[in-house]
Amino acid sequence: MILVTGGARSGKSAQVEKLVAGQCQQVLYIATSVVTDEEMARRIAQHQAQRPAHWRTWEGYRALDRVLREQVQPGEGVVLECITTWLANLLYEASGGADPDTLDFAPLEIWLQQQVDALIAACQHTAAPVFIVTNELGMSITPENRLARHFVDIAGRANQKLARAADDVWLMVSGIGVKIK
Questions:
Q1: Which residue in the list 47, 54, 125, 150 is annotated as catalytic?
Q2: Other C-beta atoms within 10 Å of 180: how many?
Q3: Running DSSP on this structure, what letter comes out for residue 136?
Q4: Torsion of CA 151, 155, 156, 159, to 10 degrees
């Protein structure tokens, strides 16, 4: 399990592509984004165009542990992009789109951390190398709204779990990868 973290536009995807190319001929790319508007559709299309054409793609965010257990083919590596988007999609779905000011985040986070635990277990039980992209959200100012503050906390704790479980961890800063574990 290889975790690549960093800020937005820090070069995480390019680093993962470089790392996976050095180890795997065939790749299953797990894309956790969903189209929510035109701008997101353009971002997804740009990512699709940048990926090698021979990579297989699985799009979705539910039951990623099952995807790792059932979809990975022999000799294939896995790229999972990205944890932050995955968590945001799960959080939105689990909350039913409720007003963030009324949410009780404690049970939601317990459930989300259980999803992270299941993902880690699946990564540890697959023979495939799994390259995981995540955003480092905790290097900025504390967000002004309740939802963003809780999301930064949830993502930060999830990233810590993933980093502890990972064999290698890379931090991307301005396109430069620094191996920190």
A1: 47
A2: 11
A3: -
A4: 180
Q: What's the CA gap between 70 and 68, in Å, rounded?
A: 6
Tokens of 113: 């951390």
Amino acid code (one letter) for 82: C
Residue-wise pLDDT for 96-113, tens only, equals: 888 888 999 999 999 999
Task: Cite the beta strand spans of the chain per DSSP E.
Answer: 2-6, 26-31, 56-59, 76-81, 130-135, 168-173, 176-179
The dihedral of CA 60, 64, 69, 73: what is its sign? positive
Name the helix (H) or strand (E) containing 125.
helix 105-125
Q: Please say if 47 is a catalytic residue.
A: yes
Judge contact between 177 and 170, C-beta under 8 A: yes
Q: Which two tokens stand for residue 107?
A: 């049970």
Maximum pairwise Cα distance, the chain: 48
Query: How far is it, in rounded angstroms, from Cα 71 to Cα 27?
Result: 11
Cis peptide before 82 (omega within 30 of 0): yes
Q: What is the pLDDT of residues 32-63, one digit of tens each?
A: 988 888 998 898 888 888 888 889 999 999 99
pTM, two decimal places: 0.93
Q: Could you give the CA distance from residue 37 to residue 87 in angstroms, rounded to a whole number?
A: 19
